[in-house]
Amino acid sequence: MDENGSLYVVDYGKDEVRRYRRGESQGTVVAGGNGRGNRFDQLSSPAYVFVDRDHSVYISDCGNDRVMKWVKGAKQGIVVAGGQEHGNDLTQLSYPQGVVVDQLGTVYVADAENDRIMRWPKEGTQGGVIIGGNSEGEQSNQLNWPIVAGNTPTPSGSIRNGQPVTNANSAKTSSSKVSEQQYFRVPFIYSNDQTRETNDEQKQKGWRYAHFDGKWAARQMEIHPNKEAIRVTGVNGTDMCELSLDETGLTSKKSAEILEIDFEQEWLKHGGREYLNSHSGRISSKYVVQLLQNYR
Q1: Whether the Cβ atoms of residue 289 and residue 221 lie closer than 8 Å to each other
Q2: pTM higher than 0.90 for the full model?
Q3: Could you tell me the end-to-end alpha-carbon distance of the chain, in angstroms, rounded to an integer?
Q4: For residue 93, which of 16, 82, 131, 159 is within the disulfide window of CB 3.0 to 4.6 Å?
């Protein structure tokens, strides 16, 4: 669903994506709809859709092992990930599922049969594995047919388990400066390992984990342009850390201790817990970071 309340539906059987504006019952085809196939104006068993703030749609074209982008009003799409036949090379996908795209145009896709999450830079010719990719399994460094549910832009607010919340017992967020700029939530993927330790070996491998309701969850940090600071309190309303991020790095305004930092990931320690948040992209202007951690 976009910010106007239009609903986007993936029709797996008809190989198309339709948009339903408020009050509409028929809908409009915004991608595919030209029969099943691998032409740029076709889809084959599409699985998931992501809508950006320009109303371009990104579709995991499962049957064609690719992710397609259809600009609003376009008659055909362009390949933004995969599309090099079925396989496990860094140029390939195998039955892609959930897809999300950040504000820099970086595509994150669940490469299901390859049991990995891949990141494709804008206009990149190949992707990189950021989670999994160690064959199917139940170990902490493995995934088993991952599926990520994409989120569309959402106004600033509290999020718990990937959903907005208003309950007083849930994590709360507030900002000292909130613009009209909206942000993207990058969803998490639960790990089977609920007792993961954040040791040096895992840091070196670049695992991206945060703690949610007793489980470790791999997910990306949220990046919010044009806000000066974000405060995050825990379920008891007391644990708080306030951070800001600019060209010089991450600044702690409260009790969060910075253990490591570069422009890809931040290891933070707060309230006796250690966890990893990460972001992608070059920091060229003032940003702030929202940490969605439920402290107990």
Answers
A1: yes
A2: no
A3: 33
A4: 82
Domain residue limits at 54: 7-132
CATH number where 56 lies:
2.120.10.30
Closest CA to 164 of 183, 180, 147, 190: 183
For residue 51, give both structure tokens: 């809508």
Q: How many CB atoms lie within 10 A of CB 185?
A: 21
Asked whether residue 171 is domain-assigned, the answer is: no
What proportion of the chain, given as a percentage, has pLDDT over 90?
38
The domain total for the chain is 2
| Residues 87-114 pLDDT 10s | 999 999 999 999 999 888 999 999 999 9
